[in-house]
């Protein structure tokens, strides 16, 4: 199984519009972050988690040519609003299933009403089918075992996903006690960590490190990083089993 980080930035992306801070003006490509999304390539299928705002650019850069399913963490714009760009990957006879919580799929249906209630021919719309899931209830995509689990994004319940020994959590500020057993035995954890300073709806880097200390994955990659985080600077400050992710990072793991 291969995991490709399509985007690793926060909702503004980096560079941030109108900002001339050191990270936004950095020449280090690791500091150029599009909105958070990943692509999972397994022998049995091709899956993306979230369709970030720059999904078209991310998919072209990564060489994504086939898609079997979309997993959504929550309905915020930076994780959802690239959905229309899956159109070239759709086939008329087989809609791409989109998995998400009831709230997420309700929001998706409202914002992309034209997909599910087309008003005229021409222009084209993505061919999608909506699949409601809930935390703690496993399912399979072409034989690939998926375990969704519930975490908190402020007051909002959102989903993280586990596939084999890999887990992905973004936009999280609290992990409920009943979720921790689903994170045991991980080799790779991807965890959102916005910045060093506290934030009401996201883990700070120190808070994320406390989660890492409890879960004890073999390796953790921090994602959803804002422009207060310089890649090389934070890399030097983190323990050797934690690293900042970056757009284009590729991880090779065992198939689940």
Spell out the blueprint of helices and strands.
Elements (H helix, E strand, L loop, with lengths): L1 E6 L29 E6 L2 E5 L5 H8 L6 E3 L5 H4 L15 E5 L1 H10 L1 H4 L11 E5 L6 E3 L2 E10 L2 E8 L2 E4 L18 E5 L12 H11 L3 E5 L7 H7 L4 E3 L5 E3 L4
Parallel strand pairs: 3-4, 4-5, 5-6, 10-11, 11-12, 12-13
Antiparallel strand pairs: 1-2, 1-14, 2-3, 7-8, 8-9, 9-10
Structural key phrases:
alpha/beta, about 260 residues, seven-stranded mixed β-sheet, 14 strands, Metallo-beta-lactamase, Chain A
Description:
This protein has 256 residues and is of the alpha/beta class. The protein has one domain: Ribonuclease Z/Hydroxyacylglutathione hydrolase-like (Metallo-beta-lactamase, Chain A, 4-Layer Sandwich), CATH 3.60.15. Helices cover 17% and strands 28% of the residues. The protein contains 6 helices and 14 strands. It has helices spanning 55-62, 77-80, 102-111, 113-116, 205-215, 231-237, and strands at 2-7, 37-42, 45-49, 69-71, 96-100, 128-132, 139-141, 144-153, 156-163, 166-169, 188-192, 219-223, 242-244, 250-252. It has a 7-stranded mixed sheet with strand order 6-5-4-3-2-1-14. It has a 7-stranded mixed sheet with strand order 7-8-9-10-11-12-13. Strand 4, helix 2 and strand 5 (96-100) form a beta-alpha-beta unit. The radius of gyration is 17 Å and the shape is globular. The protein starts with a strand and ends with a strand. The model has no long low-confidence stretch (mean pLDDT 96).
